[in-house]
Amino acid sequence: MSELIPQILRFDSLPSTNLEAAQRAIAGAAEGLCVVASEQTAGRGRWQREWISPRGAGLYFSVVLRPRIIQSGWPLITLAAALAVHDALLEAYSLKTDIKWPNDILSNNRKLCGILAETVETTKGRALVLGIGINLTSSAFPPEVQLIATSVELETGKVPDLETILRHLMIAIERRYEMVQSTRGGEETLREWLARSSYGSGKRIRVTNGPEVLEGTTRGLETDGALRVETDEGEIRIVRAGDVTELRPLDFVTES
Ligand code: BTN
To answer: 189 in ligand 1 pocket by Cβ < 6 Å?
Structure first.
């Protein structure tokens, strides 16, 4: 079994580390190629959103993966990536975070890290580029999102060191990536994700996917990582894509 051998390329400024990693993957870069930039001028988020990436305020990181498991199992790799960020923040700063399905990292219900997984067709077959953006300081996000975003500095009260987080992150990614691809590793990843996420079971949520909106209570994960949601009518719906928000008691109050 081949192991993930990381190789880091560092840049002062890039449009997007995911774009750079994807271009290198297309040209045949080996699995384990990591791209880190001090700033991104066109950082990409999920759902074609922008990921604001000011210089020195965040960790902007992408890694090229060439998974051995069948593609229907690749969503589990994004769950494993969220576990890796969770592990790294715990190990580096004793910061215990929550995971919002599928792979947002939260602290005190605010987003601390986002993960963007993109597939690319390359000369060596289909590859996965995993992009991770961690807010290190509050300058990573604009003031208008301060009620929903946070940073390692705000959560720990310490000035975070990018190199420390990066070192822990790379070790955690290697470990979680090997685990998810091992025999029964998918089940273990799902089990650990559920143990570390408050969103896996019993959480009232709204899922938005374009014009589609679904509300209900989470009821665990399918074997491929999809989220099971029970509607108020008692029907189980399987969610494979969408933006999840927690419904708090006040959200249930309707105007009369
Ligand atoms: C999200 O919307 O939650 C995902 C955000 C992912 C941002 C990271 S920063 C490093 C990498 N490069 C990008 O352009 N995006 C990802």
So the answer is: no
Work out how many domains the chain is built from and give that number.
2
Q: What is the CATH number of the domain that holds 224?
A: 2.30.30.100
Distance 249 CA to ligand 1 centre (A): 31
**What span, in angstroms and rounded, lies between the C-alpha atoms of 51 and 42?**
7
Q: Among 229, 168, 215, 219, which residue's Cα sits nearest to residue 194?
A: 219
CA of 46 from ligand 1 middle (Å) equals 7
Pocket lining: 136 vs ligand 1, CB cutoff 6 Å: no
What is the chain's mean pLDDT, rounded? 95
pLDDT at position 248, please? 83
* Rounded distance between C-alpha atoms, residue 249 and residue 33, angstroms: 45
Work out which ligand 1 atom sits closest to the CA atom of 104: 3
The range of the structural domain enclosing residue 69 comes to 7-196
Work out which ligand 1 atom sits closest to the CA atom of 53: 9
pLDDT tens sequence across 36-89: 999 999 999 999 999 999 999 999 999 999 999 999 999 999 999 999 999 999
pLDDT, one tens digit per residue, over 220-229 is 999 999 999 9
